[in-house]
Design brief:
Helix content: 25-40%
Low-confidence stretches: none
Structural class: mainly alpha
Number of strands: 0
Strand content: under 5%
Shape: flat
Number of helices: 3
Largest sheet: none
Mean pLDDT: 78
Order of helices and strands: HHH
Radius of gyration: 57 Å
Length: 195
């Protein structure tokens, strides 16, 4: 048997999805270049001068200015490492002492808990009551008596009278509004009929 060409596997073509955007980009780049060249040729043929900026100094003060202000010595900015190390060592020693005290307190508390014996409360307080000075007896001040008030007039019983009649409410009659008279209108002209 002979095999035909259709049965043979044909090489699989990979999709070329990048070709379309590539061609479009080339067209845009070419159009931009041509447009730029045409605009340049149509405008005045002056060579553009680039803007020059003055060099600026870095902000802040320079080391020379700092040295000049502090006496001009070259070694004036060096750090005394021995003093720094001594200060750090003192801080480390202080931290170690605090840690040791905390460990000792924790161990003592654990020993108390292990024995189950609670310390006896103190029988007498550690403080003393402050003694306050006795208050000085103050002379008594007699308040003057208020002046006598005049006697009140005798109270007379109230006389009961009949209540006054309520006034009748005034009822207003509604006012009818009449519409304004119509405005005169000019008669419309008759347009001739179209044949």
């Amino acid at each position: 048997m002979e095999s035909t060409g259709q049965n043979e596997s044909q090489p699989v073509k990979r999709p070329r999805f990048w070709v379309g955007p590539f061609v479009a980009g080339c067209c845009f780049a070419l159009g931009y270049g041509i447009t730029h060249r045409v605009v340049t040729l149509q405008s005045n043929a002056e060579t553009p001068t680039p803007e020059s900026f003055e060099p600026a100094l870095f902000p802040g003060e320079s080391m020379e200015a700092l040295r000049g202000r502090n006496g001009g010595e070259l070694n004036s900015f060096q750090v005394d490492l021995k003093a720094v190390e001594a200060r750090l060592e003192a801080e480390r020693k202080k931290d170690q002492d605090v840690e040791e005290l905390a460990e000792q307190a924790q161990q003592a508390e654990q020993e108390l808990q292990a024995t189950g014996v609670l310390p006896a409360p103190p029988l007498e307080p550690d403080w003393t009551e402050p003694t306050l000075p006795a208050p000085d007896p103050e002379p008594t001040v007699v308040a003057p008596e208020p002046p006598p008030t005049p006697p009140a007039p005798p109270v007379q019983p109230a006389v009961v009278t009949e209540p006054l009649p309520l006034p009748e409410p005034a009822i207003e009659e509604p006012v009818l509004l009449t519409p304004p008279p119509p405005l005169p209108v000019a008669p419309a002209e008759q347009l001739p009929a179209q044949p």
